[in-house]
């Protein structure tokens, strides 16, 4: 998924000096951002005060939207470097195309995982004859320096591990949870799980004390570590827990739990690129504009996305919170 802001600012993130060493409750309100031709998303990360959760560096939540008489999602071909994209649906379908020649329709609870590495381009759209409801999340994972120039790759996993407890079901996107391991490729200590709670259910989810965590509520009203979290909001939880109490506060509900070891490296993120210097960002933008490096996305009915202008100030990497 693309950041379609026509005047994107540089986001400076990474480093461990501002990571909370113990448990916290920091509610991250969403910012509404237009995406493509007909979709509006709630952007939760990066936010004004919180840039990353482990290696997770970008979180958009969209829907549930009634697209019965609408085209649905239409995100034209656009480039990425230095990251992975995770496509995750609760409702509807997204058709993925990329410059490797991949073509795949992603459906609810199926993992679409794209590793940009040195360079890739892709598009995303609701297919013809799509379902009436579109609901999901798009997430980015920053690649550590040793892997950020790796060859681009696309993975699709329809059968993911499921962890169950009374009143709770957890589908594992990435990493490990309670002895289960996702088949999705990872490049740093990280986890992501989609957790569903039945009406009135309460449970304690095992977590790693050295990881920092955040919970994105997808549906229903939940109590997460005693904090009430509405749909479309994300609660940053810090580090230092071994278990996370959760409860469905008003009917059934679901959330995506994101965690990881705090990301030590300093990054600069601008538009759809993650790099270490402003010069790398400028070169990636130039390569996209001239048709070098990223390849072509075949089959999308429309023009590719032009790169916005670079900001007038020098891009540099520092800090993970503002």
Automatic annotation (TrEMBL):
Domain Pirin C-terminal: 193-293
Disordered: annotated span: 1-25
UniProt superkingdom: Bacteria
Pfam families for this protein: Pirin, Pirin_C
Gene3D superfamilies: Jelly Rolls (2.60.120.10)
InterPro entries: Pirin, Pirin_C_dom, Pirin_N_dom, RmlC-like_jellyroll, RmlC_Cupin_sf
Domain Pirin N-terminal residues, every copy: 45-141
Family: Belongs to the pirin family.
Name of protein: Pirin family protein
Species per Swiss-Prot/TrEMBL record: Actinomadura monticuli
């Amino acid at each position: 998924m693309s950041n379609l802001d026509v005047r994107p600012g540089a986001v400076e993130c990474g480093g461990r000096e501002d990571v909370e060493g113990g448990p916290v409750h920091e509610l991250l309100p969403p910012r509404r951002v237009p995406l493509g031709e007909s979709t509006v998303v709630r952007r939760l990360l990066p936010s004004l005060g919180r840039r990353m959760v482990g290696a997770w560096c970008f979180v958009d939540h969209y829907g549930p939207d009634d697209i019965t008489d609408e085209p649905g999602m239409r995100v034209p071909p656009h480039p990425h470097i230095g990251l992975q994209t995770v496509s995750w649906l609760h409702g509807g379908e997204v058709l993925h195309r990329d410059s490797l020649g991949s073509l795949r329709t992603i459906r609810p609870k199926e993992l679409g995982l794209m590793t940009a590495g040195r360079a890739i381009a892709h598009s995303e759209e609701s297919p013809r004859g799509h379902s009436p409801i579109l609901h999901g999340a798009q997430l980015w994972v920053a690649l550590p320096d040793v892997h950020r120039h790796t060859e681009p790759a696309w993975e699709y996993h329809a059968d993911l591990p499921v962890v169950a407890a009374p009143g709770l079901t957890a589908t594992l996107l990435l990493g490990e949870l309670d002895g289960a391991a996702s088949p999705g490729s990872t490049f740093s200590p990280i986890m992501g799980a989609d957790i569903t709670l039945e009406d009135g259910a309460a449970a304690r989810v095992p977590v790693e004390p050295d990881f920092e965590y955040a919970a994105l509520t997808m549906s229903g009203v939940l109590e997460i570590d005693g904090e009430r979290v509405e749909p479309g909001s994300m609660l940053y939880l810090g580090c230092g827990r071994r278990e996370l109490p959760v409860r469905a506060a008003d009917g059934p509900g679901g959330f995506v739990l994101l965690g990881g070891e705090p990301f030590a490296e300093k990054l600069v993120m601008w538009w759809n690129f993650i790099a270490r210097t402003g010069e790398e960002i400028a070169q990636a933008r130039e390569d996209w504009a001239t048709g070098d490096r990223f390849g072509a996305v075949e089959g999308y009915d429309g023009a590719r996305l032009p790169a916005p202008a670079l900001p007038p100030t020098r891009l540099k990497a520092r800090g993970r919170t503002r």
